[in-house]
Specification:
seven-stranded antiparallel beta sheet, mainly beta, 1176 residues, 46% strand, 2 helices
């Protein structure tokens, strides 16, 4: 802020009165009106926290311009840093109102030494009792401030400055306590004749003052010109200037606010309105008007918390108005200053007058035409289709009971680009992945038929469609049927069939027993000690048919029942020749007594090879069973989660991927479609966008609904798009009729009818469509648009790119935890790498990757951590395959691939420091409470080598930054050995458990004993600073993120309590309710006077509850009642003051067996009864 004086003046102090203070402030002086080089720094104040700040110059200066330089903001407004100045005052201190004036002191000391013109002479009081100095200035005065200079070693702690008109009645105009400044400048306006300085408290033996001066010079800055390069400028225009970094803001603490937009003329709005809020109002409404006199409500909301508001379909699809007004009636409490602030206000116009208007049609497709049941009826002409315009959909087949599926066939009418098959496992009821099919080799989809020939047991199957082809008819996927092949359990093909084996030495365990149909009584055993063996089964021979494929059995299931399970098993098949083909192998099967395979294979013989070399076990087979597979259609299908529907409204909604469909065949002929625009408009074109195109159509328009005018239609290079033959000529229209004389003829299945994707009545036609075009501009979508904070701009790759790389420079090495990015044109595969340099020899490290992506928004988890300066996003597999060439628009032969990225955000992992903890004297051992060390926004117990550190997994989503948080860490000894101590660590946040308690085994002497440990605040331990050198012991070693994250805690600590005993969860909750939340009640009995006190043998002169040898237990159900001591083992007495070894000559006991003969064990004191004390 610069003050320009009317004339050069001699000044030596500037006073700043703040609305919102700056932490540092400097003053610069220039004797001239021009030139930056003429400024000199004349004064500065650092670490300012006051709301009135005197900037005392280094001397007297001749100034024409005084510039006030401001440092960082001390406060925030609406969670944003803000600096506000109420007044700048500039003075000379040449006029001292006290110099040479009579002075009196109440203790008789020489007060003139305080008001003379010397800073060396010193007045001193006669005692440290309150002492006053009173000066008569001889006439009334007006002052702006005072200076009190004391010796640096004798600073006055408390004082008052008083004035009076008559010398008797004094008013205090300034008071300070706990003063720390020996050179105190007071900026305060006051007037009177008499001045009294009342010295009330000092840390010295007496009061001392070297100089006491009062100033009455004029404020030379008053009403002078000022200028500032950065000023508050948040007018209503900032809300619709298109710049996301600018914003309109209301007055602080405003109760209401209004913002109005003038669209210049009555405007048809059908694209909706968005408002991006910097500080969203809780309650607001939007009104419309054409004259600013009569207003109609459009939108009203209460309790809003969202940062973006959209007004549009389905609640308010369109309207017409010139003026829009936002009326805000209640500000959000979250920003803390009662502010309303708006970053952007966008109104989306629509040249299509038909959008959202009334539309009527004679007939539509039966809504059950494409139901899920069509996929299991075995009729190829019927189809299932999911919800319109969806890329992602699914259909679930219910097999009713657990079924062994050997394989399946999927038949599509309109195949997708990608889909996956899953099954519900019969035993675990978990969904398992089978396979994913995607387009390959330049094809646009997966193809009409897919086969699968490996089996699985299941009760349900699901097709998950992941991407749908953008075909000329639109986004269409259609499934004809799914046919299953299941286990045919009727005939065991292996029973009594000829077998051949590697060995058969044991007569009682012949090879024929492996196929005799007896599962329990007989088995084949090659020989005692055999570790490798094989067995072949010849299936029934089949007759060869001339011209048909070689004969073979359609095997669906093979089951082996073992007498002794082998380690390794291989099943092979023979078909059409002597060669053997592996069906499946198992390795390490040592405990399974059944080997079960399901699938679809052709074979004439089977071979089973076994190996038990690794375990040394025997080989034995009880039975081999082989079955065919048979065809089956799923018996049931689950209701469609998002069923296909059609609606006439889809013709006039803004989405060209939704459509109206007419009936098939003859029912699809002779259909009329009517649109009523609601009033007369001047239009220039009509566009009708078909999917499945009708054969013959006619179009009429009318202004009154009676007199109709036919409009000729023509087609262009865009498939399905019809427009007027004569374009650009304005015509008046309200009603439009489209007549479909002959509809779409479905040659494949006669189930699909005419589809109409969009019906446009346009105010402006595109006269340039299909014409030659030249331009001196280029394809320019810079990478910087992916980080400009706007989703309206995007980086776009080179046209036809199959891959692309973007490298972001973070400016310096940063700890990154999580990222997010938003595609315009999606990459199916992406990799994220990081490095410290960006050169040809840079070492890039992989941080994260994704494959099979179909989503525009990608969120990388915050658990992905790395540290680096450069982040590289490598994009592959473009999902957009059919993008127009920029120079050959609407030429489908020029379609190619494209990537685009709207936004990329990398989140910095801040934190890592400990708020409080214990440490050894050298800081190499420590246990503390750290914030954000392992995961952002998460608390954790930190320790050397992470030996006492575990991930809390607290599942708390609130961000504690800027919040008051109550934390508690309890450490309870569980057991002790000669060398170790087992402790239970429990962590609490705001009175509730934070994660699960866990035990840690530590050295018994770790931070244990008198003067062996200390409390440490604001850092993990003092050994972390200064930062250890290469040869120094390093407390960060072995600590996750120990070297990359700051050990210092950035926050404020308001209160710390250290308790000897580990609190229970109930007691912690009580402390939080009382001290952090307020209004609660302590739930535990841990206060000092709740239980009797006593001493113990280790500290005989210290009285503590329960003698430190028991737990103080509260009285259940009674608030603040006396508690009772529950003594540790071996202790007794009301205060646990006695140990069993001290009260009996025979020592301690648990039962009579522990005492001498005829001496009983006292089960209360746990001491053997002393006969000498039996009468006590």
């Amino acid at each position: 802020l610069e003050v320009i004086l009317a004339a050069t003046a001699s000044v030596d102090i500037a006073a700043v009165r703040w609305k919102y203070p700056a932490f540092d402030v400097s003053a610069l002086c220039s004797p001239t009106l021009t030139g930056e080089e003429s400024f000199d720094t004349v004064g500065a104040v650092f670490k300012n926290i006051d709301y009135v700040t005197p900037v005392v110059f280094y001397g007297s200066y001749q100034c024409r311009r005084i510039r006030i330089l401001l440092g960082i903001a001390l406060e925030s407004l609406g969670q944003k840093p803000v600096i506000g100045i109420r007044e700048v005052e500039i003075y000379s201190t040449s006029q001292d109102l006290l110099l040479g004036m009579p002075i009196e002191t109440n203790d008789g000391s020489n007060g003139e030494l305080a008001t003379d013109d010397s800073d060396v002479t010193t007045w001193m009081s006669k005692s440290k009792e309150p002492t006053s100095l009173t000066i008569d200035t001889d006439s009334n005065f007006t002052a702006w401030g005072a200076r009190i200079l004391a010796p640096s070693t004798d600073v006055m702690d408390s004082l008052q400055l008083q004035v009076s008109e008559n010398g008797e009645d004094f008013d205090t105009v300034y008071e300070i306590q706990a003063n720390l400044a020996n050179d105190l400048w007071i900026i305060a306006r006051f007037e009177g004749r008499y001045i009294r300085l009342l010295c009330t408290k000092t840390g010295s033996s007496l009061f001392y003052i070297r100089t006491f001066r009062v100033f009455g010079t004029p404020n030379v800055a008053l009403m002078q010109n000022t200028q500032a390069p950065k000023r508050w400028d948040h007018s209503g225009r900032e809300a619709n200037d298109g710049l996301p970094e600018t914003f309109w803001m209301s007055e602080p603490l405003a109760t209401t606010a209004t913002v109005r937009m003038d669209l210049s003329e009555e405007t048809f709005v059908a694209g909706g309105v968005t408002m991006q809020w910097m500080y969203p109002p809780e309650d607001f409404a939007v009104f419309l008007s054409n004259d600013t006199v009569t207003w109609a409500p459009l939108w009203n909301i209460t309790g809003n918390r969202e940062n973006e508001t959209f007004i549009g379909c389905p609640d308010n699809c369109y309207w017409e108005a010139r003026y829009m007004e936002i009326r805000m009636t209640r500000a959000s409490k979250e920003n803390g200053d009662g502010l309303f602030a708006l970053n952007g206000w966008n109104v989306y116009f629509d040249v299509n007058l038909a959008h959202f208007k009334e539309i009527k049609v004679d007939r539509i497709m039966n809504l059950t035409q494409f139901r899920p049941d069509n996929a299991i009826d075995g009729i190829g002409s019927t189809i299932w289709m999911p919800e319109q315009a969806s890329h992602v959909s699914n259909i679930t087949f219910d097999l009713i009971y657990d079924t062994l599926v050997c394989g399946f066939t999927v038949n599509w009418r309109r195949p997708p680009v990608a889909y996956s098959m899953y099954y519900l496992e019969a035993d675990t009821f978990e969904w398992r992945f089978v396979e994913r099919w995607t387009k390959t080799g330049g094809f646009k989809n997966v193809g009409r038929i897919q086969y699968w020939e490996d089996g699985f047991p299941c009760s349900k199957m699901r097709i998950q469609v992941e991407e749908v082809e953008e075909g000329p008819e639109g986004r269409i996927v259609a499934l004809e049927d799914v046919k299953l092949e299941v286990w045919d359990r009727v005939n065991n093909l292996a029973i009594h069939r000829p077998v051949e084996v590697s060995e058969n030495e044991i007569a009682g365990n012949r090879m024929e027993y492996a196929v005799d149909g007896n599962d329990f009584g007989t088995y084949w055993w090659p020989r005692d000690g055999a570790r490798q063996a094989w067995l072949k089964v010849e299936l029934d021979p089949l007759e060869r048919v001339l011209g048909a494929p070689p004969p073979g059995h359609e095997i669906g299931r093979i089951l082996i029942l073992w007498r002794w399970p082998p380690n390794d098993v291989t099943i092979e098949r023979q078909y059409d020749g002597d060669a053997w083909f592996i069906i499946q192998q198992w390795f390490g099967v040592t405990e399974e007594y059944e080997t079960d395979w399901a699938g679809m294979r052709m074979c004439t013989a089977l071979k089973f090879s076994m190996d038990t070399t690794s375990s040394g076990g025997e080989i034995g087979i009880k039975e081999i069973k082989v079955w065919n597979y048979k065809e089956m259609y799923p018996p049931a299908v689950e209701p469609d989660p998002a069923p296909w529907i059609t609606d006439p409204f889809y013709m006039v909604d803004p989405d060209i991927d939704t459509y109206w469909m007419g009936p098939p065949l003859e029912e699809g002929n002779l259909i009329s479609i009517w649109i009523d625009l609601g009033k007369l408009y001047n239009a220039t074109d009509i566009e009708i966008y078909f999917g499945f195109r009708p054969q013959v159509v006619f179009l009429w328009t009318s202004a009154d609904g009676v007199n109709m005018t036919e409009k000729k239609l023509t087609s262009g290079s865009t498939f399905g798009l019809l427009s007027l033959e004569v374009q650009g000529q304005t015509f008046t229209v309200r009603y439009v009729r489209l007549y479909i004389q002959r509809g779409f003829q479905d040659a494949e299945g006669s189930v699909i009818g005419t589809t109409l994707r969009d019906f446009g009545v346009l105010q402006f036609s595109n006269m340039a469509r299909g014409r030659e075009m030249q331009s001196d501009s280029i394809w320019e979508y810079p990478a910087g648009w992916s980080v400009d904070k706007s989703l309206n701009t995007a980086w776009t790759s080179r046209f036809g790119a199959q891959e692309a790389k973007l490298i972001y420079d973070l400016g310096e090495r940063k700890n990154v935890a999580g990222m997010s990015f938003t595609f315009g044109h999606i990459a199916g595969k992406y990799f994220i790498h990081y490095a410290d340099t960006n050169t040809n020899i840079s070492q890039w490290h992989e941080a994260y990757y994704g494959t099979g992506n179909i989503y525009a928004k990608v969120d990388v988890p915050k658990t992905v951590h790395f540290k680096g300066r450069y982040v590289r996003l490598w994009l592959l597999d473009p999902r957009t395959k059919q993008f127009w060439h920029p120079d050959r628009y609407e030429d489908i032969e020029s379609w190619s691939t494209l990537f685009s990225l709207k936004n990329f955000v990398a989140y910095e992992h801040t934190g890592g420091g400990a708020a409080i903890g214990f440490q050894s004297l050298d800081g190499m051992q420590y246990t503390g409470i750290a914030y954000g060390l392992r995961q952002p926004e998460q608390w954790i117990v930190t320790s050397e080598q992470d030996f006492a550190t575990k991930d809390m997994n607290a599942n708390v989503t609130e961000d504690d930054v800027g919040q008051m948080v109550h934390l508690c860490l309890t450490k309870k000894t569980v057991s002790v050995t000669q060398t170790t101590r087992t402790v239970l660590l429990s962590f609490f946040r705001n009175g509730l458990p934070y994660g699960n308690p866990y035990t840690v085994v530590e050295d018994r002497n770790r931070m244990f004993g008198l003067n062996k440990a200390r409390l440490v605040f604001g850092i993990r331990s003092t050994a972390h600073w200064p930062e250890p050198g290469p040869l120094d012991p390093d407390p960060r070693e072995g600590v996750l993120h120990g070297t990359t994250h700051s050990p210092f805690f950035d926050g404020q600590i308001y209160n710390v309590t250290l308790l000897k005993n580990a609190l229970t969860a109930e007691e912690v909750r009580g402390l939080y309710e009382v001290h952090a939340k307020g209004g609660g009640q302590e739930l535990g009995c841990h206060c000092y006077n709740a239980c009797p006190t006593g001493a113990n043998r280790f500290f005989p002169n210290v009285q503590v509850p329960c003698s430190g040898q028991g737990a103080c237990r509260r009285t259940s159900g009674m608030a603040f009642a006396d508690g009772a001591c529950e003594c540790n083992q071996g202790y007794s007495g009301t205060a646990c003051e006695f140990h069993c070894s001290e009260i009996s000559v025979y020592g301690c006991c648990e039962s009579n067996d522990d005492c001498p003969t005829d001496i009983e064990c006292d089960l209360v004191t746990k001491a053997c009864k002393d006969p000498a004390n039996e009468d006590d």
